[in-house]
Amino acid sequence: MTTKPATKSTAKSRKSTPDAVDMLIEDHEKVKKLFKEFEKLAKKDDTEGKVEVAQKICEELTIHAQIEEEIFYPAAREAINDDDMLNEAEVEHATAKDLIEQISGMSGDDEMYDAKVKVLSEYINHHVEEEEGEMFKKVRKSKLDLDELAVQMMERKEELMGALA
């Protein structure tokens, strides 16, 4: 039995599937939009709306961080051999998780609520800049199979989202 070579259409359809780095960048973009939505609702004093968005932010970040820590970071650690960068990313995750826990346990009309969400936003923006500006570039240059990693990450993400539902 002979194997057919990949056609342009099959190669293109494979290409349209995001790889592991693309998936993480999509998550970053989604959370950035949610933070902007939160800011608009906070300005309107829409407590119920901002709490709903903040909860979504916390869920998205929690799942994202867990996928990175369980799947992406260990693979990246092996592929790029930059423990300092990955250690720093994990410490940043721990701090973000602490803020997420605080926000999740607060009332939306608490005087510190908006401030904590704003600090989380700034913290995440800093973390994202480092990942996208440094780590992801190094990972893309490595021999890591980002397509296979994306499959593992998507399966885990679906599990975690199902557990939240």
TrEMBL record:
CDD domains: Hr-like. Residues 1-20 are annotated as: Disordered. Residues 20-138 form the Hemerythrin-like domain. Residues 1-10 have a biased composition (Low complexity). InterPro entries: Hemerythrin-like. This is Hemerythrin.
